[in-house]
Amino acid sequence: MTTSENNKKIALVASDTDAAQDAASALRNRYDFVNVDEADVIVALGGDGFILHFIHEIMPHKASIFGMNKGTVGFLLNDYHEEGLVERIKASTPITLHPLRMTAETQDGRQVEALAINEVSLLRQTRQTAKIRILVDGKVRMEELVCDGIMLATPAGSTAYNLSAHGPIIPMNADIMAMTPISAFRPRRWKGALLPHNSEVTFEILDPAKRPVSAVADTREVRHIAKVSIKQDRSIKINLLFDSHHTLEERILNEQFIN
Predict the structure, then answer these.
(1) What confidence tier does 38 reach under pLDDT thresholds 50, 70, 90?
(2) Does one domain contain both 67 and 116?
(3) Mind giving me the DSSP string for 129-165?
(4) Is 108 among the catalytic positions?
(5) Tell me, what CATH number does 80's domain have?
(6) Measured between alpha carbons, how far is 177 from 232 in angstroms, rounded to an integer?
(7) The pLDDT value given to residue 221
(8) Catalytic residue among 22, 40, 48, 233, which?
(9) pLDDT of residue 63
(10) What CATH number did the domain enclosing 122 receive?
(11) Measured between alpha carbons, how far is residue 91 from residues 86, 88, 171, 175 in Å?
C-alpha cells in the first residue's frame, strides 16, 4: 500500500530502542515512506519523551504527527498496529497545540528563549527554598512565594509534571493554563491558579545569589535565572493525530476519573 492512496506523503521516525526499531522495520516492509522534510504526516514510534524531543527538533513544521506507542506510558501516542496505518491516519482526529514561549534572563544578563509543549517549571538549585514574585500581565499577584519551585502548564501538559505536583487536569478545549506551586512553604495553603491562555506570566527571583533557581522549558534548562517571562505562542501550531475512538481530549477526561 502506498501513500498516494491517502493523497498524503507519510514519513517514519523511531526512537533508538530495540522495540521501536523493530516496529519501524516492519512498517517499512509494508508501506512507502518519504523523507521528513517532504511529509504531510509523520509517523513517530517511541514513548512520550521521544515524541516531545522530536517535536522540538522539527518545530515549526507543516506536517501532522501520528504517534504510535513503543515506549512506556504513551499518553501522547496511539496504540501500535501494523495493519491499516493509512486508513487510521485518514480517519484520525487532529488536535492543535500551541507551545509556551519562555524568555529567561540570567543573573549575568543573558536572555535565553525556549519553547515548552508541556510546561515551564522553576526549580531551586540548592538546599535553600526559592523565593519568587509572581506577576500576571504586569500586575503583581503574589509578592513572595517560598517554595521548591513553580510551574506553568498547558492543557496537554496538565497530566504530566503538573498532575504529580497536585495541579489540576485541564480539558484540551478550555483555553486556560495551570500555575502550580511545587512544595509551597509560604503561603502554605496556596494551591495555585488557573489563568486565561493569553496571559503573560512573569516570575521574578528574589535574592537569586543566595537562593539560585533554574528554569526548564520541557527539557531545556537555564540555570541561575533572575527573571522568567512566559506566554503562549499562538503563531506556532503543532498538529497531533489521534485515533477517533481515543483522542487526547478523551484521555485527559479519563484521567480525572482514575483512582
Answers:
(1) very high
(2) no
(3) PEEEEEEETTEEEEEEEEESEEEEE-TTTTTTHHHHT
(4) no
(5) 3.40.50.10330
(6) 9
(7) 97
(8) 48
(9) 94
(10) 2.60.200.30
(11) 9, 5, 22, 26
Q: Is residue 122 within a helix (H) or strand (E), and if so which, with residue range?
A: strand 119-124
> What pTM value is reported for the model?
0.88
Pairing outcome for strands 225-232 and 100-106: antiparallel
pLDDT digits (tens, 9 = 90+) for 130-148: 999 999 999 999 999 999 9
Asked if residue 175 and residue 133 are part of one domain, the reply reads: yes
- As a whole number of angstroms, the distance between CA 146 and CA 131 comes to 5
Average pLDDT, whole number, for the chain? 93
**Nine-digit cell at 227?**
527573571
Of residues 74 and 237, more confidence is placed in 237
HSE (CB half, 13 Å, CA atoms) of 235?
Answer: 3
Nearest alpha carbon to residue 157 among 86, 98, 82 = 98
Q: Which amino acid is at 228?
A: V
> What cell was used for 240?
497531533
